[in-house]
Amino acid sequence: MQEPFFTLYHKDPSCQARIGCMVLPHGPVSTPAFMPVGTNGTVKALTREDLEEIGFEIILSNTYHLYLRPGTDVIAAAGSLHSFMQWPGNILTDSGGYQVFSLAPFRKIRDEGVQFRSHIDGSSHILSPEKVVEIQALFNSDIQMQLDVCTPWASPYKKARESLRITRLWLDKAKQAWDAQVRAGYLGRLFSIVQGNFFKDLREQSVEAVIASETPGIAIGGLSVGEPEEVFLEYLAYTASRLPKEKPRYVMGIGTPHYILAAIEQGIDIFDCVLPTRAGRIGNVFTRQGPLVLKKSENRLAFKPIDEACACKVCRTYSRAYLRHLFKTQEILCAMLASYHNLYFLHELVRNARKAIEEDRFLSFKQVFLACYDGDTQ
To answer: What global pTM score does this model have?
Structure first.
């Protein structure tokens, strides 16, 4: 069994916000940390050098997409996903479970795994919890996720209960497969996933199961799936409060300042979302006053940066007017610059949050930031 890899350094006494460090095979990761999403082995519109320049220590890639294309044989031939991408930092790979259930047609879920057809070419595939562990070990993922069943907002109790039963079964199988990979020399860490939809008794059962599994880390799944904000906040707090303090906590799919700060307040250590680059590709950017839509006519003669308080190279160099021009003329550079700024913005937000926690002033930091920030939507 591997030694514990997460060190908790300090907790803000006014809330659950905390700072710590995960020591992973490709270097330490200071927490809380936002992870950019590189679904297909690349963070869209950014280079590896961009990500290093901003300061990211870990990014996320997707097992489902990489399994289908380019295929495990290509990544194995490259030596690892890190070698294939030429990314020197850490990589978390999600299990692909969400993509199977959201993208793949004609899926069949059984105790043994999930059978589905590729959304790319219609070919038939079977992913078992054991196979998903083996694929992620082949990728040499620094953190890998168990295969789980994610249910959407407003799912009936019976469906949520059955999905949780399968997720718990798959966790047992994944843990056994991961233990075997560790004995063979694999250094990556396995995270179990709390499910249970929006039923507190199911969440309790799921928390008990993931604690009993003794995986190195725990993810809170089934949030940010279309529920109202107040429900998200309620179930985030309810679930996080029941998790062991000595293990890192991960919430999947949150990427706005409001949701990130809410997660940090509840003691969440890592989170990810496609939003910063997806928004950047359509010319929407973060500012300290709230989201900004570059294509609006008000920016036509705006020769100031996206955010005058931002120190990123985009804000130091280019004006809103120029970026609007790039967007209106459909120049690729707009997506690249806007995505860079958005990721820099979130990285700085989290870095400043860490400093505030260290100084026991996180709640005031959050209050001041959100008092200026307007229009946040997850």
So the answer is: 0.96
Q: Which of 198, 80, 69 is nearest to 139 (CA)?
A: 80
Max CA-CA distance within the chain?
A: 62
Q: Average pLDDT per run of 10 along the chain, which is 378 residues long?
A: 81 98 98 97 98 98 96 98 98 89 80 92 94 98 96 94 97 98 98 98 98 98 94 98 98 96 98 97 97 98 98 98 98 98 98 98 98 72
Burial of 39 (0-12, 13-18, 19+ CB in 10 A): middle
Smallest CA-to-CA distance from 196 within 186, 184, 185, 208 is with 208
Specify the length of the chain in residues. Answer: 378
104 within 8 A of 118, measured Cβ to Cβ: yes
- Quote the tokens at residue 370: 């959100």
| Domains with residue ranges and CATH for the chain | 9-279 (3.20.20.105), 283-372 (no CATH)
Burial degree of 242 (CB within 10 A; 0-12, 13-18, 19+): middle
Q: What amino acid positions are annotated as catalytic residues?
A: 94, 272
